[in-house]
Design a protein that fits this description.
The protein is α+β, with helices and mostly antiparallel strands. The protein contains four helices and two strands.
Length: 157
C-alpha cells in the first residue's frame, strides 16, 4: 500500500508540475501518452516484443536458401636442400544450400516464436494499461484536489 501511495504521489506531482511548467493544463490523453512514452516498464516490454519479432524473423530465415562465397589467397616460401620454392595458392568457392527437410524443426521454432511474440504483446499491453490506469487515477486525484483548493479559497475569501 505504501508503494502504491508513493507512486500516486509521484504521478500527481509530475502531472501538476509539468502542467505548471508548461503554463497550461494537460488533458488526460496527453498525460497518458507522456507516461507511455517515458515509463521504463512500458519501454522494456515494448523492446521485449520487438526482440521476439526479430527472433521470429531470424528463425524464418532457415526456410530461405543460403548463398556462401569463399575466397582464399596465399603465398608460401619453402627453402630446403633442393632449393628455394615459391608457392602461390588461390581458391574460390560458391555454394548454394536450400533446406529441404529438417524434421519440422524450423516450422516448430517459427510457431513457438509466433506464440511467444503474442505473449510479449499481451505483456506489453498489460503493462501499458496498468500505467494508463495509474495515470488516470492520479489525474482524477489532481482534478479533485484542485477543486478542493478552489472551494477552500472560495470559502475563505
Amino acid at each position: 500500500m505504501q508503494l502504491n501511495l508513493s507512486k500516486l504521489c509521484l504521478a500527481i506531482s509530475l502531472i501538476s508540475t509539468s502542467a505548471f511548467v508548461h503554463g497550461q493544463t494537460q488533458t488526460l490523453k496527453d498525460s497518458a501518452q507522456r507516461a507511455m512514452e517515458n515509463n521504463p516498464e512500458v519501454l522494456a516490454k515494448w523492446h521485449n516484443f520487438q526482440s521476439t519479432s526479430s527472433s521470429r524473423e531470424a528463425a524464418f530465415g532457415a526456410y530461405l536458401p543460403n548463398l556462401n562465397l569463399s575466397a582464399n589467397a596465399g603465398k608460401d616460401d619453402r627453402d630446403n636442400r633442393l632449393g628455394k620454392t615459391e608457392l602461390n595458392r588461390n581458391s574460390t568457392s560458391l555454394s548454394l544450400n536450400q533446406m529441404i527437410y529438417d524434421g519440422f524443426l524450423t516450422r516448430n521454432q517459427v510457431k513457438q516464436l509466433d506464440h511467444l511474440k503474442q505473449v510479449r504483446f499481451f505483456e506489453f499491453q498489460d503493462t501499458s494499461e496498468a500505467i494508463a490506469l495509474e495515470v488516470t487515477r492520479a489525474y482524477a486525484d489532481v482534478i479533485r484536489f484542485r477543486k478542493l483548493v478552489s472551494l477552500s479559497e472560495y470559502r475563505s475569501g
